[in-house]
Write a structure and sequence with these properties.
Layout: E1 3-10, H1 14-25, E2 31-34, E3 50-51, H2 58-78, E4 89-93, H3 96-112, E5 118-120, H4 122-128, E6 139-143, E7 147-148, H5 151-164, E8 168-170, E9 175-181, E10 184-189, E11 194-201, H6 207-214, E12 221-223, E13 226-230, H7 234-237, E14 245-248, E15 253-258, E16 261-266, H8 292-305, H9 307-310, E17 314-319, E18 322-324, E19 331-334, E20 341-345, H10 350-367, H11 389-401, H12 425-430, E21 433-438, E22 441-447, H13 466-478, E23 481-484, E24 488-494, H14 498-505, E25 516-522, E26 528-538, E27 541-547, H15 551-560, E28 567-570, E29 575-581, H16 585-590, E30 607-610, E31 615-618, E32 627-633, H17 637-646, E33 650-652, H18 654-664, H19 679-682, H20 698-707, E34 711-718, E35 730-733, E36 736-747, E37 752-760, H21 761-766, E38 770-774, E39 777-783, H22 794-797
Bound molecules: flavin-adenine dinucleotide.
């Protein structure tokens, strides 16, 4: 007889057992975990077991805090000792710039509500960890929410607690394959078939292979880290307090106490991949021989920083493997086209993120939603292109090799690029285009015309792009500029039910034929799922425009809600063009289209296919000027650029758009609008058509309208700045954090450092002075009552 479960979790490491536990916690007990050999037999058994709450995404950081908070509960519930030590941790800085970077991190801790984080001087570091040699140290940052545990104990504790709640654990049975059927998935295992409504891929280093069984190639691959465990160290034995862990940022090593000795781990500057396709099936509870030559340089610095370790022997080397993704965060969630299949793969920091993944996946399976904004670990943040070995190996190497390097705002990293380019790429580069990347596509950040030798130098303060961005902003405000719209995704929706489907899917009013409109798309629970523009080309033909990098994410949502009589086509790579903005834009665009663009004939928010259907012209502007978006078939985009260049249109990039839109107080997705926010707090409620019939999220949105939202999105003008906010900085009222920055940039036309922020309404109403931490230092901030530029909107509409 075929065994059957509601959910089958594949993989008995920290991720799989945490998922099993979280499903059981939500009352789903008809759930099982299946493990190839013994629990922990992947990466989990030999992890150093360290954990921390810091992550470059605020939502993931909050979930990491959740992971840490779960350990005592799971230990108590299972009755299994997990050796939990909340030791705190210190990051060491050896340069003034790194110290500044730590100041920014400290502000970030404040924003996250982590109490007790503080900066340390070298003497305070030595007082806490006497085996640190303070030579060359500028200082450090103490984070109390760090620690370590017994990695095996934690896995068994999750499994034990899940079992106590009724879940099943099957060991010594490898999953051999799986097929979709009408009841979910029929999973072939060494112990016979299992039918499951849902399968979860928590197979760690085998995650890519298990994904392929279901029909998806996940961008995840094993990499080989090292740590060593020393013999007893007399200086450590003399420490009679809980010694904090240490990460030497310029020294490439981390240290934690292990009984009377220490674990010294290496952040490798030249990491090594291993079996890119996934670990061999017969890889047991085994270690690889240490590759000491490869890490000799890092070790040398490590022994200088912790000289007492050099005086004792090495008890054991741990050279194992774990799975890594191009950006180091896990791949979590449902996969488009594979209903009932869930990814929980590529969890590189399982002891910081195990419960985070467990919580998100269990919420998603049981409630249909991960419960928070988990985009930074959503499997949909990559497209199929990311699993190409060249890309995967280059980007995972880059991520791992840079794990402890200082990161800068607007820094553009080279791995795996260029992968995809637009047809106008060569010509825009020749015009001075300095590129970044979104979802594998090269996009201009700014232009340095006439400076072929320009090299971008990122900085914690303003970088050397500043003056070029100023020129681009000036061009748009006083003349005309063109922004390449490859960064947008485009979907065509047609068919007899296109109108009714979109009317239900989108919260805004659908435009009339020949018009366009902006609309939020909501989740049933009332949070945002998109800020889209909709153009109506015919009664039954619409174009939906969103962000290029959200294609998988949006298509997953569209397809989950699909109905008959609707055809959905992704045209993101087939059509693109330029957004032409500025007072001279009408004169320029008029020369390229065969319709009359006068205000009377083609009003603001008009849209029409022109030139025998070879160009969509839409009158709108993210820059807040008179503007037209021109969208053409991809093969005609380069020619369109040449026409614009001949009319002396200045190319502009992403950075100028940020400056221009902040001057207007226009938000964008991923900054002001995300799946964690609501229409009421972001102001997108003004685009909701409350009086129309039912639409997804209406009930929740109405509730929010009735109750009001606690926060409000505002634009701030910052004083006394030599740097600009970038996002996720705290907003202060006195010593209280009352909000967070969603994005920031210098407003070159209004000559002010600007930021948008979600701020508690009470704090705003109180009129108390506000401050914002910019690169860790507090700056005065004033909430603007109207946009910094053209508050009446007359330039855009004129
Ligand atoms: C040297 C080293 C040090 C580390 N230090 C830390 C640290 O300090 N902190 C930290 O957070 N992380 C650390 N890690 C990383 C950590 O080990 C991983 O993030 C974590 O173990 C991943 O857990 P997982 O459950 O996702 O994967 P795994 O632990 O690899 O579990 C996957 C499981 O799936 C099973 N499986 C695979 N395929 C199948 C199949 N077809 N059928 C059935 N079962 C299958 C495997 O046998 C395995 O048990 C370290 C890793 C290494 C190698």
């Amino acid at each position: 007889m075929t065994a059957s479960y509601r959910v089958l979790v594949i993989g008995g490491g920290i991720t799989g057992t945490s998922i099993l536990y979280h499903l059981a916690l939500k009352g789903w007990t008809d759930v099982a975990l299946i493990e190839r050999t013994e629990l922990t037999a992947g990466s989990s058994w030999h992890a150093a077991g360290g954990f921390h709450a810091i992550n470059n995404d605020a939502h993931i950081a909050a979930l990491q805090s959740y992971t840490i908070s779960m350990y005592p509960k799971v230990a108590a519930e299972s009755g299994i000792d997990i050796g939990l030590k909340l030791s705190g941790g210190i990051e060491l800085a050896s340069t003034p710039e790194r110290m500044r970077w730590l100041e920014a991190e400290l502000a970030w801790h404040a924003m996250m509500g982590h109490e007790g984080a503080r900066l340390l001087d070298p003497q305070e570091i030595v007082d806490l960890v006497p085996i640190v040699n303070p030579k060359g140290l500028a200082g450090g940052l103490f984070d109390p929410d760090e620690g370590n545990l017994d990695p095996n104990g934690a896995v068994y504790a999750y499994a034990g607690a899940a079992r106590k709640r009724g879940a099943t654990v099957i060991t010594h049975s490898r999953v051999l394959g799986m097929k979709r059927n009408s009841d979910g998935w029929l999973v072939e295992t060494e112990q016979g078939p299992i039918q499951a409504e849902h399968v979860v891929n928590a197979a760690g280093m085998w995650g890519r292979k298990v994904g392929l069984m279901a029909g998806i190639d996940h961008p995840v691959t094993p990499i080989l880290p090292h740590y060593l465990v020393t013999e007893d160290v007399p200086e450590i034995m003399a420490i009679d307090w809980v010694m904090p862990a240490v990460t030497d940022l310029e020294g490439w090593t981390y240290l934690q106490r292990e009984q009377n000795g220490a674990v010294l781990g290496v952040y490798e500057s030249n990491p090594n991949h291993w079996h890119p396709e996934g670990a061999p099936w017969d890889f047991g509870v085994t270690l690889l021989p240490p590759d000491i030559d490869r890490i000799a340089a890092e070790l040398e610095i490590g022994f200088e920083r912790f000289p007492a370790l050099a005086e004792v022997g090495i008890k054991r080397w741990v050279h194992g493997a774990f799975a890594i993704t191009p950006d180091g965060n896990p791949l979590v969630g449902p996969v488009r086209g594979l209903p009932g299949y869930w990814a929980a793969a590529g969890v590189m920091a399982g002891y910081s993120q195990g419960a985070a993944v467990g919580l998100a996946i269990s919420n998603w399976i049981v409630d249909g939603d991960p419960g928070d904004d988990v985009y930074a670990m959503d499997v949909a943040r990559f497209g199929p292109w990311a699993a190409h070995d060249d890309y995967l190996l280059a980007t995972t190497y880059q991520f791992y090799a840079r794990r402890v390097l200082t990161t800068y705002p607007h820094e553009q990293l080279p791995a795996g690029r260029p992968l995809h380019t637009t047809p106008a790429y060569d010509e825009l580069r020749a015009a001075g285009g300095q590129y970044g990347v979104t979802w594998g596509l090269e996009v201009p950040q700014f232009f340095t015309p006439g400076q072929p030798d320009f090299v971008h130098e990122p900085s914690l303060n303003r970088d050397n792009a500043f003056s070029f961005i100023a020129e681009e902003v000036a061009a748009v405000r006083t003349d005309v500029g063109a922004y390449e719209t490859g960064v947008y995704s485009r979907y065509e929706v047609t068919g007899p039910n296109a109108e009714s489907w979109l009317d239900h899917l989108l919260a805004g009013r659908l435009p009339k034929v020949g018009r366009m409109g902006l609309t939020p798309m909501l989740h049933d629970k009332g949070t945002l799922m998109g800020d889209l523009s909709v153009t109506r080309l015919a009664d039954d033909r619409f174009w939906i425009i969103g962000s290029y990098y959200l294609q998988e994410w949006h298509l997953r949502w569209f397809e989950e809600h699909m109905t008959s009589g609707v055809e959905l086509k992704n045209m993101s790579d087939q059509w693109l063009g330029f957004a032409v903005s500025g007072p001279r834009s009408r004169e320029v665009v008029q020369q390229l289209v065969d319709i009359d663009l006068s205000d009377a004939a083609f009003k603001f928010m008009s849209a029409r296919l022109v030139n025998n259907g070879r160009m969509l012209v839409s009158r709108m502007s993210l820059a807040g000027e008179l503007g037209y978006e021109l969208t053409v078939p991809a093969e005609e985009q380069a020619e369109l650029w040449r026409s614009l260049a001949n009319l002396h249109v200045r190319p502009i990039g992403d950075r100028a758009i940020d400056s221009l839109r902040l001057e207007k107080g226009f938000g964008i997705w991923s900054a002001e609008f995300t799946q964690g926010y609501t229409p009421g707090e972001t102001g997108l409620d003004r685009f909701i058509a409350w009086e129309k019939g039912d639409f997804i999220g209406k009930e929740a949105a109405l509730r929010e309208r009735e109750q009001g939202s606690a926060r409000e999105l505002v634009t701030l003008s910052l004083g006394d700045c030599d740097a600009d906010a970038v996002g996720d900085e705290p907003v202060w009222s006195g010593d209280k954090v009352v909000g967070l920055i969603t994005s920031g940039a210098y407003g070159h036309h209004v000559e002010a450092s600007l930021a948008m922020a979600l701020i508690d309404r009470e704090a705003l109403a109180s009129g108390e002075p506000l401050e914002v931490s910019v690169v860790g230092r507090r700056r005065p901030a004033v909430a603007l009552v109207e946009p910094a530029y053209d508050p009446s909107g007359s330039r855009m509409r004129g």
